[in-house]
Predict the structure.
Amino acid sequence: MSALVFFKLLAIFVVVAIGWIVGKLRWLGAADSNVDPARVLANAAYYIFVPALLFRTTARIDFSTMPWGTLVAVFVPLLLMLLAVYFWQRRANRDGRLPVAAPSVRAISAAFGNTVQVGIPMAAALFGEAGLAIHLAIVSLHALVLLTLTTALVELDLARAQQRSGAAQVHLAATLLATARNTVIHPVVLPVLTGLAWNALDLPLPTVADEILQTLGQAVVPLCLVLIGMSLAYYGVQGAAKAAVWLSVCKLLVLPALVLAIAHWGFHLTGLPLAVVVMMAALPIGSNALIFAQRYRTLEAETTAATVFSTLAFVVVAPAWLVLLGWLH
């Protein structure tokens, strides 16, 4: 692992530690039934900063220069992983022991990587400009695809739960309509769709608007890292360690192995593109998984623990994947 990646990881842990201190000393207040500072911070990210980042990203994508073959080779296994964990967890939760949103929260934790804070410096340090260009192409669609799909899944589950509750006789058409509405009118999906529409119309972003969106978007990374630390302080990891471990194993070992197998033997990807997509898949769990968990008030402690544990374990796992890729090459 290069010094650049190591120091980036160190900086991440320091910012998380600052968030933990803020939460432990209750500088932003104590969590109670009326006010939860960690959830307030998550809502700020979800409703203000993340939408700005997603709209600006999708509005500026140059689809004509995208390496579509490589993107298909990486997103097929990513989506397979997400859906496999989702359906596995739905089946395991048939007795209703966990909240309705639990399968979707665990699915996004197992598939959503830290492609920005850790991924960008890693790609730049290990693969140079050519590798970074491939990684950035993946990043431009990463949140768009995974968050949109997971949002649709969780909203459908919530609509089904409402239908089963008997609180109201809801017909299938009404359930699907409510799911579609809640999926589209959503702080993640709506800015993505709006950004894509802006892009399709080939409209330029006014300079002032672009500056505002960029400023708001830059707050996402530090805000999410502080949120992870605060969530550790408020929720702890009691009872969450077991799930955090298997989620980390899925993210750090199973997902990159799946990407390697499908991209290399399924799509015949080799050399630099193969190395970039496998290392992207091996990244630790991204902070957007925690924001998603906070949004649906589901498994916050587990998602926090999994994010921290996978980031720590990445220090050991990443060199192992690089050795394997070197052997294949």
Notes: Residues 3-24+37-328 form a domain with the Na+/H+ antiporter like fold fold (CATH 1.20.1530.20). Residues 119-165 form the longest helix (47 residues).
